[in-house]
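User: Could you write out the 3D structure of this protein bound to flavin-adenine dinucleotide? I've included everything you need below.
Assistant: Certainly. Input first, then the structure.
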Amino acid sequence: MSERQNVLIIGGGIIGHSISYYLNKSGVSAMVIDKQESGRKATRAAAGMLGVHSENAQANVFYKFCERSRELYQSLSQELFRLTSINIGLSRTGMIEVALCEEEKNKLRDKKAFFPELEWLEGEKLSEKIPSLNGSGAVGLHMEKDGHVEPTHVCEAFKRAALHFGGKLIEDHSVWGIEKNEQGYSIQLGNETLLVDRVVVAAGAESGPWFEATGLVDPMVPTKGEYISIKPKKNIWDETLFFRDFYIVPKPDGRCVIGATTKPYDRGHFPTAGGLSELLNHVFSVFPTLQSEPLQDCGAGIRPGTKDGFPIIGEHPTMAGLYFATGHYRNGVLLAPATGELMKDLILDKKVDSSITGLLSPNRLVRKGEHSYEHSN
Ligand SMILES: Cc1cc2nc3c(=O)[nH]c(=O)nc-3n(C[C@H](O)[C@H](O)[C@H](O)COP(=O)(O)OP(=O)(O)OC[C@H]3O[C@@H](n4cnc5c(N)ncnc54)[C@H](O)[C@@H]3O)c2cc1C
């Protein structure tokens, strides 16, 4: 492992593999290292929603970044299939955000004012779309361009496509230290040391210590989410439904993924009976008929949340060549393509949109300057 790589990416979730794909495709040699089999952490638990409108209340800079990412999926779907024969399950069947109480309805009205192109649904129009909804007076906003993908397929496809372009992958090796030297960085992997030009931290919910010991404020809020999936005997509706307390994503194979609980600072990787019961109580209060549908699967993952709610994407303010691409909270699947593209442009020193790099920059975490750091996982 003494060979010199241009870029080393710590973390093989959907974010790390997307960055590797974009870099290797552009001719920059990038290697992903994961402490276990890659794609098994938050990425594996995700429902895969591309919720540009459900996640944004206004058409601001962050909304545009989300929109760009969702649009990238269109061409990626074909390109990744051509390169890897993996179907990423891109589905643009739309989403409906549903409001049940007056407070939620007011928020939805505000959203409609910001996005006049979205269709307002109430009365018969809403019950035609969601016949089994038990919520008189409910209203909805139809977001027809939003949809979903299969996150594990996307992650695997990015991984294999990066390898196709000459990328490298090491699994079951934990990176426990990085040190800046004159040429770049020394990376500690157990007894071995790897020399690289640049490092990208894409370690998901485990990114916190890398900020703190490189002199920055730790912005991470690891947030557990639990989900359950059912396989209804017949297709109930086509759109993804998004409520305040849960969502239901109908997958092409007939599964409906129901998510998710939100438990800040809970790092438990297993779903609990209490968590699933809380989730299902919300669902059954609106869709009582789903109680008799066959259970398929359940699970949990730790979202890489941040204190200000935005991802951290960009170069360390004082350690040149050290980058972060993490903190995507509940939008890592949606934002994986745009994050990979942006990191590639930053590393290649290309012109980038300064409004988005300013918003997401690690400069907002400055505390003091330090130049090397170790931690054990
Ligand atoms: C229940 C649930 C539902 C979700 N639904 C959606 C959704 O519908 N749409 C959406 O866009 N997002 C969704 N998300 C969020 C999404 O899953 C995450 O934002 C995304 O997966 C983050 O990807 P990541 O690559 O940053 O992190 P991860 O997938 O967690 O990957 C990080 C990787 O880093 C590795 N690692 C950590 N430390 C080290 C180290 N020191 N050395 C080597 N490797 C290391 C880990 O082993 C891991 O494989 C959901 C999340 C959950 C939990």
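The chain has two domains: 5-81+151-218+308-374, 94-147+221-306.
User: Perfect, thank you.
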